[in-house]
Design a protein that fits this description.
The complex is a heterotrimer of chains A (about 350), B (about 210) and C (about 625). Chain B is mainly α and about 210 residues long. Chain B is built from eight helices and no strands.
Chain lengths: ~350, ~210, ~625
């Protein structure tokens, strides 16, 4: 092998790339959190803790990575050689002991202690008196406020600044509740009841998605946590408790009849009507919900029409079959559903 | 050069017989490793039994099933565990060159092992009147674990039969008995697993 | 008095297998079987790679409908399952098969017929599992196949049957291979190769084999229980009848975590084989590396719950497993620093094998660092099941296994084929793969930190995930191009590569003392070693050549290997090795009939496989005529 001028070592080039990427990444994550349901854009004490933990782990890892890369680069730059001579001196084990045992033992112990502290901090706070049950289904979220007597789906409304206990289980397969901006994820397992808690520190709508593969439409099982100032939330609570709004408008009244007579009633409940099915989400206050199909579509009249006629085009494999309604029936039904606030 | 000068020719049978044990054969290690995987498999099943049991306390067995009665299983245990005796006789016997002891020991082990299986079949007919594997998880665990062990006993019986046939054909003698040894090891392993099953599944619920 | 030439001739005749098609089905030669493992695993790698390309193409843009959810779920399941079970371990077992006997100075593995059997079962199980695509019913429960989704109620179709039966079948091969490696390493080492002189690659394979022996039964128990639940109405995982879905997870990860070390440890062993040679010096910290291999294998059994931190287990138990998960970093770090110390105190030769080792070092360290993050419970609970974990495990698996495998290809293929690969094409391939790999997987750290969950067939626009996904998808194609370059290199070298000679790299271990490719009998004389680096001992080659003429270094029979003691490798006796035979194939076919019938629900057919297996095993165990006559 000829002794050419040694090229820039590959590790060195990549070191720069990593630093640039790291810097860019930090900038991205800081700014991009606005639209992304990101753990690094925390809006609650649980997520804030973990975000802090992340940055600690990130910087430790960055330092270690740079040090190791520098050592590798040094090995490549110095003493590039040919195959004929063997190097026979001994020693060199100090690096192994220091780098492989001593330093990691110290750093990892520190990291472990910090992790334990943060784990304890994630315990449900004493005196949490608001409880919401979340029951996982393929592919939607049943939401119940047992003490307040509310049944809903795919949205959880909470008052800002108050901890809310979540009691989680599943009716079918394993799902996982993950609203990254508020807190860590917890699984919903049939036959088990898991407890976690959320607390929003500012008003907003925080998006989450099922985080345990649960079959065909795992990708489209989103949940929204809507945090409101305490008064607004109290207002929401009062409204949710009431049965479905009476249909004053004739179109909406026809729509209610359509709902009761067609197969809607077999799967859905609208409290105060003859629809008492429990296979699908409760629709009593569907008009006020922001999405259809657990986040599959925004809740607009056009989208809703499309969903009812054939939801399989939007969320193929979901449990709602296409509904053969006449155009008039559909318009009436849409008017009724829109009125359910 | 001393290591190089060591003669490494294949010894004759007489030389082997006269030698102090010349190390463990590869087949011996193979059987040890095989037994290790099977033992780990039983460990996983028994661990699953305890995991599910302690999730269901205090009611165990589930669903009103009675805790297993012990008289028949104790008889079965006595029969199976004593079958290791003639197996030892067979193994030691052929090591000293006594083909007769080999054949007799194998036959006795086979009879005892087959009796065990027969009694287990009888036990199943009684149990199946009360519950099946599909009744609840207790039924699933009971039949799966004891059934799996029964399959291992069956394999052991087949091995004994195979070795017995070869014994009658004169394949074994002093210094030529590896397959007897490995069969014996397997058989003792199957007995040991039964002890664990007896303690966990039969005696455990009574404690 | 036979001359050296006559004796070599007789050895060749005795060990050579007859040419022709029949021999292809009867071979028991570890070199042929090793090559087959490598080629077959490569085909499965390509299949899983195409599956990945399909996934990445679908995810290149939000809301795409190129691939629907049903097909997508099968593709991502098979991508993971194929890569882990049908590529990684078989590929590494293939290199192990070829090189462990050579490195030990032996003529074959301890159980040549078991070796052949293991290959056939691997081939049949892999074909069986992939045959599911022909029916459009490939496994679709994810590579870890959680219940109840994969139980009888939610996936009654045969998709999951292909998974459970396929893996139960495949497990026989993996176990057989592991037992073979253990016994070969214990009993067939060259005289003088005491424990502290065993090559580090062999130590790695040995630690791996023990991990297989203890880990695989947990998976087998799990799959057996699921099979019983699905097909026979049992209730192991059914909460309504006292069962528990979480039991599946415990047993699965009891296997699954050691499995990732089963994949990585032999790859790290390859790195330990290459680093001294390309640093032109013995390894710094041989003892530390052996300790690290064994410690990793042992501790790997104590960390499995870190895959279950979101399940709702008690904090106390999670704390224990967190500690163990952080602890396992230490043997990993020991290995890294041993290699780095060797490189620093040697003279690095940056040929293609070493280039892939450098790529491995960078990527594996990065993946290991994110792995440490996952050992911290609250962080794991936030970020598991997102794309961040997908990034992590690809950095450790691709970085930690695929790069060393590529290094092994460039390092050892010349010994296998007798021809060198092209250096420039090799370097091009490296840069394409390394660059493409980082473009493919680095952005996944970001999309995970932006809240994107894993195993999703599509995603909505407006969540900030688009750009990162597009970058990953481009990276996938760059990686594919890199692999094509290596494939091209291999094909080219088979025809036009420069002859490698015995020892193109100036190697240290015994495989370099034979021709390239080695003769069927590997070594004409019994090698005797006095160090962990035999080829670097003074005048080793001359002494070995001289030994060909010395009766004391010959085995009396032509078709024999030398059995030595476990600790000090002192000669015990010569043992006769089996000739080529079709029995292992017959037994494997019997198992195929049994498992295939079980899968299809044709229990009568399945039962027919049993007597075939039993008869085959009887023939296998039947002594040769000469043995009986004695």
């Amino acid at each position: 092998m000829s002794r050419r001028h040694p090229r820039r070592p590959p590790a060195g080039r990549w070191r720069w790339a990593v630093l640039v990427a790291g810097g860019g990444l930090a900038a991205q994550l800081g700014g991009c959190g606005r639209t992304s349901p990101s753990p690094l854009d925390p809006h609650g004490p649980g997520a804030e803790r973990v975000a802090g933990l992340w940055w600690l782990l990130f910087w430790i890892s960055a330092v270690v990575f740079v040090v190791v890369s520098l050592l590798v680069a040094a090995a490549l730059v110095r003493r590039r050689g040919d195959r004929d001579t063997l190097v026979r001196r001994g020693g060199g084990e100090l690096l192994i002991v220091v780098g492989g045992v001593v330093v990691p033992a110290i750093v990892l112990t520190a990291v472990y202690v910090v992790g334990l502290r943060d784990l304890r901090a994630l315990t449900v706070p004493r005196g949490t008196d608001l409880t919401v049950e979340v029951i996982g289904h393929d592919w939607w979220w049943e939401v119940r406020y047992p003490r307040e007597g509310i049944v809903s789906a795919n949205e959880i409304h909470v008052p800002v600044g108050r901890p809310v206990r979540l009691v989680l289980t599943s009716k079918d397969v394993i799902h996982s509740f993950w609203v990254p901006q508020l807190t860590v994820k917890t699984d919903l397992i049939p036959g088990h009841t898991n407890t976690t808690w959320i607390q929003a520190s500012s008003p907003g709508a925080y998006r989450g998605q099922c985080a345990e593969y649960c079959g065909l439409q795992h990708a489209k099982m989103a949940i929204l946590v809507v945090a409101e100032p305490p008064d607004a939330w109290a207002g929401w609570l009062a409204a949710e408790r009431r049965p479905a709004a009476a249909a004053t408008d004739p179109t909406a009244a026809r729509g209610r009849l359509a709902l009761e007579r067609n197969s809607c009633a077999a799967c859905h409940t609208v409290r105060g009507t003859a629809a008492t099915g429990t296979v699908g989400p409760d629709l009593t206050h569907f008009g006020g919900r922001r999405t259809i199909g657990a986040g599959a579509l925004p809740n607009t009249r056009g989208n809703l029409g499309g969903w009812i006629v054939n939801s399989q085009t939007v969320k193929p494999g979901n449990k709602m079959p296409p509904q053969p309604l006449t155009p008039e029936e559909l318009q009436d039904l849409l008017a009724y559903l829109e009125s359910l606030n | 050069m001393t290591a190089d000068a060591r003669a490494v020719t294949a010894p004759t049978a007489e030389e082997v017989a006269a030698e102090v044990p010349a190390g463990r054969p590869t087949g011996w290690w193979g059987m040890v490793m095989f037994i290790t995987t099977e033992a780990t498999l039983f460990a996983a099943l028994v661990a699953s039994y305890f995991y599910l049991r302690f999730q269901s306390t205090p009611e165990w067995p589930l669903g009103g099933i009675k805790a297993p009665e012990l008289s028949l299983p104790l008889v079965m245990s006595a029969i199976l565990l004593s079958s290791s005796g003639p197996m030892v006789l067979a193994d030691r016997g052929i090591r000293a060159g006594h083909v007769g002891r080999l054949r007799l020991g194998l036959a006795a082990t086979f009879v005892l092992g087959a009796t065990f299986l027969g009694l287990q079949g009888y036990e199943y007919t009684i149990k199946l009147k009360e519950f099946t594997p599909t009744t609840n998880v207790y039924g699933s665990l009971f039949f799966a674990i004891t059934g799996f062990h029964g399959m291992h006993v069956m394999v052991g019986l087949l091995l004994i039969l195979f070795v017995q046939v070869r014994a009658w054909l004169g394949h074994f003698g002093r210094g030529r008995h590896l397959h007897v040894q490995t069969t014996a090891m397997y058989w003792h392993f199957v007995d040991a697993v039964w002890v664990v099953i007896m303690l966990s599944l039969y005696i455990g619920p009574h404690l | 008095m036979t001359t050296v030439a006559e004796r070599t001739q007789r050895l060749a005749e005795s060990w050579e297998e007859a040419p022709g098609l029949a021999s292809w089905f009867k071979t028991v030669d570890h070199k042929k079987i090793g090559r087959r493992y490598i080629w077959t695993a490569s085909v499965f790698f390509a299949a899983a790679g195409f599956e990945a390309l399909a996934l990445r193409t679908q995810l290149a843009r939000p809301d795409q409908t190129l691939i629907g959810p049903g097909a997508y779920n099968q593709l991502f399941t098979m991508h993971g399952t194929t890569m882990i079970f049908l590529f990684a371990t078989p590929m590494l077992f293939g290199f192990g098969n070829y090189f462990v006997p050579l490195m030990l100075g032996a003529r074959d593995m301890a159980f040549p017929r078991l070796n052949a059997f293991g290959y056939w079962v691997f081939l049949f199980a892999g074909l069986l599992m992939n045959a599911s695509f022909l029916f459009g019913q490939a496994p679709n429960g994810g590579w870890f196949n959680y219940v109840p989704l994969t139980g009888p109620e939610y996936t009654p179709e045969v998709n999951i049957g292909f998974y459970t039966v396929g893996l139960l079948f495949l497990g026989i091969s993996t176990t057989a291979g592991a037992i073979n490696f253990i016994v070969t390493t214990f009993k067939l080492r060259a005289p003088g190769m005491s424990l502290n002189r065993i090559p580090l690659f062999v130590w790695a394979v040995l630690a791996t084999a023990f991990a297989v022996v203890f880990a695989l039964p947990a998976l087998n128990a799990d799959n057996a229980m699921l099979l019983l639940d699905r097909k026979f109405g049992f209730h192991f995982f059914d909460p309504a009848a006292g069962g528990d879905p979480v039991l599946w997870q415990h047993l699965f990860w009891l296997f699954g975590h050691p499995d990732v070390y089963i994949i990585v440890l032999p790859a790290l062993g390859i790195v330990s084989a290459i680093v001294p040679v390309f640093s032109r010096r013995p390894m710094v910290g041989y003892f530390w590396l052996v300790l690290a291999n064994v410690a990793t294998a042992v501790i790997s059994f104590g960390v499995w719950v870190h895959h279950m931190f979101a399940v709702g287990l008690p904090q106390l138990s999670m704390s224990f497993f967190s500690a163990a998960s952080l602890l396992i970093t230490i043997p990993g770090g020991i290995q890294i620093f041993a290699w780095v110390a060797t490189m620093l105190r040697g003279r690095v030769v940056l040929a293609t094998p070493m280039l892939f080792v450098v790529g491995f070092l960078i990527s594996f360290v990065a993946g290991g660092l994110t792995g440490v993050m996952f050992g911290v419970v609250p962080f794991d609970q936030q970020i598991t099941d997102s794309y961040f974990v997908v990034a992590h495990f690809h950095y450790v698996l691709f970085g930690g296994a695929v790069f060393p495998i590529l290094a092994a290809v460039y390092y050892w293929m010349p010994k296998i084929t007798g021809r060198l690969l092209d250096e420039r094409l090799g370097k091009l391939s490296f840069w394409l793969i390394f660059g493409g790999f980082n473009l493919l997987f680095f952005p996944m750290h970001v999309s995970g930190l932006l809240g994107m969950p894993r195993r999703v067939y599509t995603f909505l626009p407006g969540l900030g995930w688009e750009g990162w996904n597009l970058a990953s998808s481009i990276g996938a194609y760059v990686v594919a191009a890199g692999f094509l370059a290596t494939l091209g290199n291999l094909l080219w070298s088979l025809r036009r590569g420069r002859p490698a000679g015995d020892d193109p790299w100036g190697g240290d271990s015994l495989e370099w003392a034979t021709s390239s490719p080695p003769p069927p009998y590997n070594f004409a004389a019994v090698p005797v070693v006095h160090s962990a680096y035999p080829l670097w001992e003074d005048r080793f080659r001359e002494r070995l050549d001289t030994a060909q003429g010395s009766p004391g270094r010959q085995l009396a029979g032509d078709h024999e290997v030398l059995r030595t003691s476990e600790l000090d490798a002192e000669p015990e006796r010569a043992i006769e090795m089996p000739e080529e035979t079709v029995v292992p194939l017959v037994v494997a076919l019997g198992f195929l009939v049994a498992f295939g019938g079980l899968l299809a629900g044709w229990y009568l057919v399945a039962a027919l496989g049993v007597p075939v297996v039993l008869a085959g095993l009887a023939a296998w165990a039947w002594p040769r005529r000469e043995e009986v006559a004695r």
